[in-house]
Amino acid sequence: MLRSGAAPMILSMALVAGPAFSQSEPQAAAPEAEDTIIVTGSRIQRPDLEASSPVAVLSAEQIKQVNTVTVEQILSSNPQFMAGFGGSSNNPGDGSATVDLRGLGENRTLVLIDGKRAPFYDTSGAVDVNSIPTALIKRIDVLTGGASAVYGSDAVAGVVNFVLDDRFEGLAADGSSQISSRGDGALYNISLTGGIKLGDRGNLVVSGGYSKRNGVYFGARRRNATALDSSDLVSSGGSSNGVPTLFDIPGDEDGTVGGLQQVQPDGSLSSDVELYNFNPVNYAQLPFERYNVMALGRYEVTDGVEAYGRFSYSHVKVETNLAPTATAGFGFNLDPSNPFLSDAMRAAFFDQVANPFLQINDGSDVAEDPTARAGTSNIGIRRRMVETGGRLSTYTTNNFQFVGGLRGQIGDGLNYDLFAQYGQSKRDTVLRNDLSYTALQQALDVVQGPNGPQCFDPSNGCVPLNIFTTTPVTQQQLAFVLRNATENTKTTQFIAGGSLAGDIGFLKSPWADGPAAFSIGAEYRREKGTTKVDPLYASGDLIYYGQGQNISGKYDVKELYAELKMPLVQERPGIYALNVEGGYRYSDYSTVGSVHTYKFGGDYAPINGVRLRGIYQRAVRAPNLYELYSPVVAATGSLQVDPCAGSNVPADIAAICIAQGAPTVGAIAQPISGQVNIFTGGNQNLHEEKADTVTLGLVVNPPSLRNFTFSLDYYRIKIKDAVDDTPVFVTMNQCYNIDKDPNSAACAGIVRNPVTGGLSGDTTIGVPSQLGNVAGIKTEGLDITASYRGGSSEGFNYSINFAGTYVFSFKKQSDPTSPVYECAGTFGGACDMEPLPEWKHVLDLNLGFKGFTLNSRWRYLGSVKQDAATDILRSKIGGYSYFDETLSVNVEDGVTFRLGVLNLFDKKPPIVGDTVGASANGGSTFPNTYDVIGRQFFAGASIKF
Length: 945
Fold this sequence. Notes:
This protein is mainly beta. The protein has a domain at 228-281 and 323-393 and 430-486. 9% of the residues lie in helices and 45% in strands. It is built from twelve helices and 45 strands.
């Protein structure tokens, strides 16, 4: 164990981690003679004019050092990022991998490839970085802070720009394999890249690759295999949708009759119920397979005119597996002559003398529901169909993009770029092994026939379903009630634009040697998206997958932008450099109308090697296709405590519960697995989000110590009118604790199950959660980086890199009437996000001697505590350290071998239980933030001819 004092510091320096971002590196690597400079954060390409916004750089070598196959792996481990969807996102998850700067959301981080937008993978406006292979990445630039004046919508938290190697020559192969210390979770990756010169005027690069990752279930990790109640970490945190079957029997408030009862082997019923443990069948690591190809080309048509192009295609297949489907506590009408019922069940379901709270149908509703015949009893049923193995979902995405254009120079110093690009993403989703509610109604409405049990309505080959016993359901019975669903999404993106950049010779300060530089341009962008679901999925008849959404929409935007940078003072006493910059973009959206974004800032260097920088930017995010055009449908949301549940509900609250449809209070069960039904969907009246971002920084890189760099940057980002659906917890709090009025907007929208009084059931039951410009987010903190490189390139050499982020505050407000929650340093249901430590850092040490390089990486996540809405046993998660080691050996020119271990000390994830209330919670931990797989070994080789 590491303890305070000198020893841990020595150990830390010996084992420090691999690739850290260095914010002080130049925005563009030093170009070769004919390289095109790609500058992230500005369209002005003058190396002498440094940016006022911090830009972090991650090199191709750093990517290989930790065996990165999908780029979210390395980005999410760095301190400016929070874990988005990735390889551990089983529930929630849709097979994608996304990046999330500052924890502000994937659709507020703009993703670029060579300075141009990457296409969205679906209508949500996020980019699936699974489709970006690593073989041709020369570096990754991360610009933090708003950048809408330069790049347009979505650059609220910042920009991630994947810069490709379009000058590669020769033939290179790279391959690697990885496996956990338990012998599972294998990962394979191979790529082949070739590049040739096209005479003296151009070149062509083609690269292809294949990647595969095997799945790992939580059941394969003993620590995460049992669903635990977060209140004590001993009791089951599993689901009351279990096996054998459980029944919600209407009863009184003190529980003397009715309540939750479970079938016993002898046919009796017991209130001592066994909850279902759903963890073992959920993925801790998702299976993943990818094929990809990319081609880059450029050719100098004539002096000053270069044609360039890029084509990329990827095929990505990802699977998720959720706990087997269940009847979910829905109410079903049972006939007293059902031969599957035991005597104990008939007494419990039909004896109104013993239980006057039973709901026996009088036949008045039979026209709407044929099973509601006179004498039938409505009973809530909770039966987990473990015989299916799980709800397996397969996501197959085919993504391609074309980019082409002309660039070059006009005269002396004027650079132009004319381009057009088209991208398309098609995602085919198959959702397997769910239950049809109408088929269940039919199959559970069983009577005694001349030849034995039969469905009252035998149409469509109905097979009577016997879930009133402890024996398994037969495959014939399952086949009648099980259904699959399909969803097909297609998004397209077309962009055309042009820019002109250069010097303004006549605009020059008398105290500076260089003139002002400018960039102006225009762009047109069109986004289209459609989602089509099969009729069954659209009907809402599926119990757990809910109601699929048919979405169709489009928008376009026309934009003009301008940028100016000007040196005011250069190399004067007391002022080594003083520069100012500004930018403006006008955008005309077909949806939200006119939008204005802008920036102004500057930098001041009192002496060579010390620079102060600062910038203010107004950024925007226009609502995406999903937010605008998705219909309002039933879905599920997180809620741990229902104010109407339990036996001691206050009278004023009970009156609200009954007004919302509950038949009575006192026997209402708490939400199943912490989930309730919600009504959610889009809103075509949405307008743009607005964000004000401020960055103030210091960069130290003295001439006498050029190998040393230090930077310190303060950031503040404030988003208003953010698009969000109000969390269920907030709506419930507004209704029952603030309004306390059944006619208030919050209370009136809540619809309760007329049988159980709960918030689960058919698609008419739930809590409203429609999208609106209702939320506010504000975050501020510090980014700190330091690096030093020493030694000789031919002998012993070393480098130390450090990158850390301290989050002072991260405040979320779901709507103007709701409380403001502090999320920095917390986890839980109020903020409903990944754990957000106040302090995170990555520290790495590289030691090299001749052909050997040892890379050590230390990833640290600070402690977090439960937020205002969370009250569990483990109220605090301490700081977490992960150590990784990689040894690279250059055998000869162009041949390199890599051996490495991730999570060297096999650090186990924290156990907080499965009823924390946050969506990202799974396997009794937070699998996207903390490592569940454990120690992993990898080996790789690179060969270049």
